[in-house]
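Running this now, will post back.
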Amino acid sequence: MGGKHKRGSSCSWRVLLAVVCVVLAVVSGTVQAAHSHSDGTANHADCSLCAVSHVTVHLVQTPAPAPSVSVVATIEAIAPTITPSVLSTFALFTRPPPVA
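Update: finished.
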């Protein structure tokens, strides 16, 4: 009986956390979409929302190229199994003729 209570409370916390995350994403998206300034300019240096919306990711270091790979040994493939070329049909199951 104690296991059911623990499992149920764990599930409810997960659902609550998921709902909070979805609500936070919707609210922040609405605020960013509806954000405007009274003077009509799109970007203000002192506005934290404007500053965050124009931040881009800058690479600090260029990615390293993938190392070259050399073949050490060859692998032989197993011969394919022989499969029948014709499908067998079940001749005892036929549809009766339509009733006129």
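The longest helix spans residues 2-34. More later if anyone needs it.
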